[in-house]
Amino acid sequence: MSIVRKRLSPVESRDAAIEAARALLVEAGPQAVTLKAVAARIGRTHANLLHHFGSAADLQKALITHLADTITEEIGAAAKRARLGDADPREVVDLTFDAFVNGAGAMAAWMILSGNHDALDPVLSAIHRLVDDLAEDAETGKHIHEDTLQLVLMAMGDALLGGAMAKGLGLPPEAARTIATRALMASRTILPA
Fold first, then answer.
1. Which of 22, 36, 78, 154 is placed for a possible disulfide with 91 were both Cys, Cβ 3.0 to 4.6 Å?
2. Dihedral, CA atoms, 37, 41, 43, 44, nearest 10 degrees?
3. Which residues contact 104 (CB under 8 A, 6 or more apart)?
4. What pLDDT shows up at residue 1?
């Protein structure tokens, strides 16, 4: 008996592959995001994914681009709500930290350690667009750039070894998020002065 596969448009096939790659990233880490594993997850062939992405590296870059665009859009919206008083600045911190905990940190570290630095370009571009969007003037822009650097580095560090560090220092697991929230509120780039 043969299995009948639903015919997907090229966009649907690509979207399904990226969603499957994201799920594999969260479940098993960046090394699990292979063409073979993604193809098996969505019931397609390795050749089909090669047609859409060209290589595993291109699939991973598409995943990184998707994650970066989606995450920065959510963070930007939360930052704007916080400026209006409709959200707590902690939401911005939590979204940023959650993005790194839920795969982006491991994927970025893996890309860097494997020498695939170009794969991070979509992340850096998305962050730059977000910062430019949030900057109201040159002075605010300078501080937002600095706050973004601090927040991203804290989120990345927390994703990679924050739990162990907090435990080793006798601090609660969310200590880095609390520190990041205090720093963000003190800088006043998210909240109006």
1. 78
2. -40
3. 67, 68, 71, 123, 159
4. 46
Distances from the Cα of 13 to the Cα of 9, 31, 50, 104, angstroms: 6, 22, 12, 23
Taking CA atoms, 106 is separated from 28, 113, 153, in Å, by 10, 10, 13
Packing angle, helices 10-28 and 46-53, rounded to 10: 110
User: Which two three-digit tokens encode residue 81?
Assistant: 């709500």
- φ, ψ of residue 24 to 5 degrees: the values are -65, -40
Q: Which residues of the chain have pLDDT under 50?
A: 1-4, 192-193
Distance of CA 26 to the CA centre of its chain: 11
Q: What are phi and psi of 88, to 5 degrees?
A: -85, 135
Nearest to 158 by CA among 116, 113, 104: 104
